[in-house]
Amino acid sequence: MIRIIVMGLLIIVNFVLQSTLFPHFAIMAVTPDTALVLIVSYAVLRGDIEGAIFGFVVGLVQDLQSGLFVGLFSLLGFLTGYVCGKPFRDFFKDNYFLPFFVVVGVSLMYQFVLYITSIMVFGQLNFWLYFRTIILPKTIYTASLSVPLYAFLHFVNSRIEKREVFGLEI
Length: 170
Prior knowledge:
The chain is mostly helical. It has helices at 2-21, 34-46, 48-66, 72-85, 98-122, 127-144, 146-165.
């Protein structure tokens, strides 16, 4: 129960920060996608099923915020959580740089899917312009925050796991 409460609070805090504070720290009109970092980090730490559920919830919050393509972020979050959690069940969780490389790859694919979706809705867009102005800067900005966010989520997860092991679950 404590895990659900803490992760719910993390989702809400991330949503509030991404919609209020992060636009003031935009670089080249691009803000970091900390929700994607949270999904990848949680999936790497907890596995595919919990990562998929967490990704779906985070994506649902993004869908409710944007309102543009209802269900797109939920689906992307679900798939991201599942795919990132699958191969990393047995890897060394204290390795903070593996999530960095996973975030880079996932962010590139994530932004490419959003580009394809925007082509379908808004018409023909110049891919190289979109890549230079949105995909690449957003990936770099997001990846730069992946190590500190993963370290924070790793700390929170280890504290929750200690509570669960010693039977202090609420």
